[in-house]
Amino acid sequence: MSRKIEDMRYILVTDVGSTTTKARLFKNQDGDWRFLVAGEAPTTVEAPYEDVTMGVRNAVREVEELTGLRILSVDGSYIEEPYNGKVGVDCYCTTSSAGGGLQMMVTGVVKKMTAESANRAALGAGAIVMDVLSIDDGRRAYEKIRHIRNIRPDMILMAGGTDGGTISHVVSIAEYIQSADPTPRLGVAYQLPIVYAGNKFARKNISNILGDTFSIIFVDNIRPILEVEETEPARRAIHEVFMEHVMSHAPGYLNLMKWTDIDIMPTPAGEGIAMQLIAEIYKQNVLGVGLGGATTNVYSIVDGRFNRSVSANLGMSYSITNVMKEAGIDNIMRWIPFDIEEGRLRNIIRNKMIRPTVIPQTIDGLIIEHAVAREALRLGLVHHKTIATRLKGVRGEKAITRGITTQDMMDTYIDMMQIDIIVGTGGLLSHAPRRVQSLILLADGFQLEGVTAVFQDSVFMMPHLGLLSTIYRDAAWSIFEKDCLLRLGCIIAPKGIAKSGDRVMEVKIEIDDGSVLNESLKWGEIKKIDLAEGQTAKATINPSKHFDIGNGDGKTLVTSVDGGIVGILLDGRGRPLTFSDDKNERKQELLGWFKTLKMYPEDSIEGV
Amino acid sequence: MRVCKILSQNSEIKVTEKGYAYTPGLKIKKSIMIKKIRRLPVTGKVLVKIGDNVDFLSTVAEAMVPGEPHVINVATKLGIPRESLLKYMKKVEGEEVKKDEKIAGYTAFFGLWNNWLTSPTDGYIERISDISGQIIIREKPILVDVKAYIRGQVVELLENEGAIIETKASLVQGIFGIGGEKHGEIMLAAEDLTSYLTEDLITSNCKGKIIVGGACVTKDAFLKAVEMGVSGIVTGGINDIELKELLGYEIGVAITGQEDIGTTLIITEGFGEISMNPKTIELFKYFEGKIAAINGTTQIRAGVMRPEIIIPHELEVEKGVDELSGGMIKGTPIRVINEPYFGALGRVVSLPVELQKIKTESKVRVVEIELDEGKRIILPRANVEIIET
Description:
Strand order of the largest sheet of chain A: 14-13-12-17-18-19-25-22
Radius of gyration of chain A: 25 Å
Structural class of chain B: mainly beta
Largest sheet of chain B: 11 strands, mixed
Helix content of chain B: under 10%
Number of strands of chain A: 25
Radius of gyration of chain B: 29 Å
Structural class of chain A: alpha/beta
Helix content of chain A: 25-40%
Oligomer: heterodimer
CATH architecture of the largest domain in chain B: 3-Layer(bba) Sandwich
Shape of chain A: globular
Number of helices of chain B: 5
Largest sheet of chain A: 8 strands, mixed
Strand content of chain B: 35-45%
Number of helices of chain A: 18
Number of strands of chain B: 33
């Protein structure tokens, strides 16, 4: 993009999601970039349409309808650019996860070393990883070959061996791939791309074995030495291949690529950039989540280290029954405060899977969806912790992800007590009718600990802004801050367990307007304190002797907390969160929390 | 799109003439031309030619797929350096081997020490690698074929892959199914198709047939159908808890069709007890006694596939019925696809432009509908589907 941002009036960004195509129009208002309007329509990558531009056109038409600005050409075959004073926009770009997104297989030699690094690199590039294959993954060789043949990835990322180390194992993996001869998912007319990021001294062998059948892209070794993990060259290559080989074969994408001013980016990559931007601006540890229809993406930026996990089959529409399967129906039912038979609940969840675009129309339907969402978040975080781990196989005490950080010997370095900011995005969270709903879903699903600020994507535009920030960072951040990032507030949740009637903590809140509040919380209680967005308070938190708020059991913490749309939540329910074994007591507990927090319209849950 | 204003119920509502946010409906077509692509999983030999008439079980194409691979790390097993592997091999790449035949090894100490590896299978040597030290023996290829699946005529050949079969037929798409391709005579289970399809309605007369049932099939009825050799069951719904019991496991993501259960099941409406759409019932009644093809394969995402019943016939093809619907307009027939009006039928009255607050307090795009019973309701556009005509 060579055009100057200050000369522009309108920017249009879309996200072609698995269920919905979301168009967002941004406007330059006297030098101040703001979000103007949103338009949405079902994605049309699947049969019977099989042309992604139809969904984009429909979403853009909604924008046109709501603004009166014509954006599409008269025959709808392209986007008018630039804005000429009457019609068109100055820039158009898009992210995409439709049609299954970017689906990859990754390989390495050792499961917990190079295979794990390759997995992280692919996930960081926005891929859904269909399989992680390694010499020691527990499958017999013929099973590996059969599996490689059966899955049809968009591309393969191969890692394995340090530079100068043994080459025989990575060659073995290449032989399995050659023997399996997998075909690409989108058409057999092109060679399946393989990004090779393994031992550089094995390149010639890899080329000899796979060169005739596959399109190989060689990049720097992902683990040149065991102590270093360098994912950036692989990530860059994956993005290039995604555009050149994968997107160009998806239905309608060749046309869409002609419409856009910059390359199409996988949605999770856009979302990931947005999360990193937040961590960078606030200089704090961030845990983010994109709770989508098909997948749940969790992002962490802890002490500067970025990681992304994608739970490909955890989502709120296409994958909703898999959440039911993985979590178990009892875990979903524990969040529901009214009587519902298991059979009926199962049917409701199944019907959402087969018609993924429907939305709840009743409060009961909304509460059920929120119950499933908590479980999707919980499982997504469990998965993320298996990805966000320190480098294994390192002999020394320090492992380095180049240019970033050192880690200790723990398996996962995600400690909820160390997370400063939680960010939620995705249709369900962004469209939650009351903001307190998304705050409590994140608190319950992730079991937040200590003092955590909670942000939310206002109308689902984080992927859009993440992509936009790659070309116009300041404009993107301006919109981010003013229109996208909703500060919901802050949650104070000590870790520990107790019994009914026990004291959990005393909290003194000194608000910057001079007012002072003293609160005492007993086990199982939850309280909300109003503290508006922009207001700050000094919080002195005295946990009981079996509770930890960040300084250790029973140790006082004095910290500053920011307000938000919801305010400050004092959570005395303990961590880990437990429920009464008695069904009626559990329901009363839930209803109590819902009422205290005004989660749903009072009259709708009054008679439950 | 033109936006206009109309007066409705004494208040001014801004409406559009056409709505784009909608869920496409499932097809229920009495007479259309259907083309089915019949393709091998790998390249092979096409056995039909253009103009051939084919039946449900006619073989269209066949191919040999590679047999199972056996990977043996010969260097490790023999305790030899990898780079010396070729020296110890008794076979070369491409050479045939028999089960228990010596493939690599050596004799030492004047024949007193024998260290030989034998082949675990009949097959051939696919690869010998002196870098990894392993060899791959491939079992003999296996013959796979692809059937015509429907009765019709070959209209196009796919070189080395298969053919396209065309037929005049009726088509009903279901919402979810299990089990693969089958065929059989259509038989209505009972006069009243709005109640449960129960065990007592499945008799020995149902063998090899496609039984069209009511609003819900019970687990016992389905198990009896399997026992009686019923080809397929088509019904409005099934309770998920019973589906889980039938399969012995829970379906996570909706990718089905590979279940080995004997009888294919297609539900046309959803999970639970939901009466079939009257148009679907009418169509099955009309074609009772005809032979149909049925396939329960369902994939909701990434290459969406809905289960289907295809009834080949000789009726005239209805003109324009296979065009894609362009969107909702005033008068468009719709079906409600979410609680609390799930399954209700009606017609579009208006399409308000402005977002409206529903009971959940969400602000969504809505559609005003007049239900067949005469009641007018406002629903999220996302919660209706167009009834394709």
